[in-house]
Amino acid sequence: MVWGDGSKIFLEQTSHHPPVSNYIMYGPNENYKMYGFSCFGSNAGLNSLKVVNKGKRMVVFHDKTKIAFDTLNDSFSNTFWGTLRHENIGEINYDDSANGIHCKIKFGGIKKKYFIKLNYCRPSDYFMGEIVLNNQTVSNVYGSYLSFLEFDGVRFWDIREDIDLDLYEYKKSLPSCSSLREDRILLQERNLELGQTAKEKLENLQRKDRKLREHYHKSK
Q: What is the pLDDT of residue 116?
């Protein structure tokens, strides 16, 4: 997809067992790119579900600055009875290892007196944290991922002031797009025999790749 400001994003499910999704996003004029992959595990309770999000994520800016980060887990309560509730709770860690900068953001569990002082309420979507350089705090961060973001009391983003961007379907595809797969094209053309041959060729390649990955991890 592409946004009205020129940002583009590509996403692809690269594995179905286990499910793994990859993505890459380019900002306006390619002033930054964000890429990575995600996979997950889950723990189910009697009336709840916790989804543990895994994977690697990276932002690279135009000046070559790289920031690696993780993501929150998803917590679902009242999954069978009661009012269903979905929350993202935990911590996100951002690391700029080349410059020695680290930021830890905590979501949920914010002390009530902190938000009373700021005249805010205490929903679980509020967060706070700090940016650390060489073991020294250089900036404090707080806000809500649903409404605003502030650094040292200065508001850098507010959803009420954000400009709506139009979203369009991007006509170009990555070479790995499933719509360009040979077996799919042959199937659409009703050439079932050649389509089956192409499908088996692709599956054998995938099996070979999986064995190579397993061998690599065992050898580490």
A: 46
Question: Could you tell me the residue ranges of all domains in the chain?
Answer: 2-168, 181-219
Q: Which amino acid is residue 99, in one-letter code?
A: N
Length of the chain in terms of residues written: 220
Q: 69: closest CA among 49, 40, 91, 43?
A: 91
CATH architecture, domain defined by 2-168:
Beta Barrel (2.40)
Model confidence at 96, in pLDDT bands (50, 70, 90)? very high
